[in-house]
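Marked as duplicate of an earlier ticket. Keeping the data here for the record.
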Amino acid sequence: MNALVSFNLPEFINTVISLVTAFALGTAIGAERQYRQRTAGLRTAVLVAVGAAAFVDLGMRLEHTRGAIQVTAYVVSGIGFLGAGVIMKEGMNVRGLNTAATLWCSAAVGAFAGADLIAEAVLLAAMVLAGNTLLRPLVNAINRSPIDATQTEATYEVRVTVPAERQDQARELIAELLDKAHYPAREVETVERADDLVEVVATLMSTAVESAELDAVARTLEAQPFVQHATWTIRTSD
């Protein structure tokens, strides 16, 4: 009976508008993710947007602006745990960051809708869609362009495979050659391999190099009679 007494038609219609707006905008964002076959697709984006809108709308109904502010803070914290669930690490690669960011933005869209800021919710949804679609050609163009090692901040490693009993000699030789090339090593580690071989890995202090200079260091190392293999690798910085 209390539910009938407390029923407020204008407030109910306002809630309907907020949730329907969140549902429609979440569908637009999620449809793009579903088309791209991402981990979090249509239904996830819709539920995130509608859920955020429902919580913020409830805060507005109970405590007005103060309640909406408090609930929004918890929505932001809670969506972080959901986003972490779609991020996966595969070796040196991390996948799902874009999907997690999209879910985070979907929650923001829902929060705007729940706070009765419909125009702002539509604007944010449009920007999310633009970020996931219109920027894709630019991302592909950048990824296809040749990497200029002198302009890229990254972690560089020189790797040498030698018999276990020659690892000390290899460490000294790597340090000497890198110093001559003006690329001092930040640290030198040894990794055990099969057949009594070890890999000596020198991590450079420099975050940008001339590829030809490291190629020359690798060739000099590989020319040594006790060196099985020598190369250098690059890892992009976080």
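See parent ticket for discussion. The chain has a mean pLDDT of 84.
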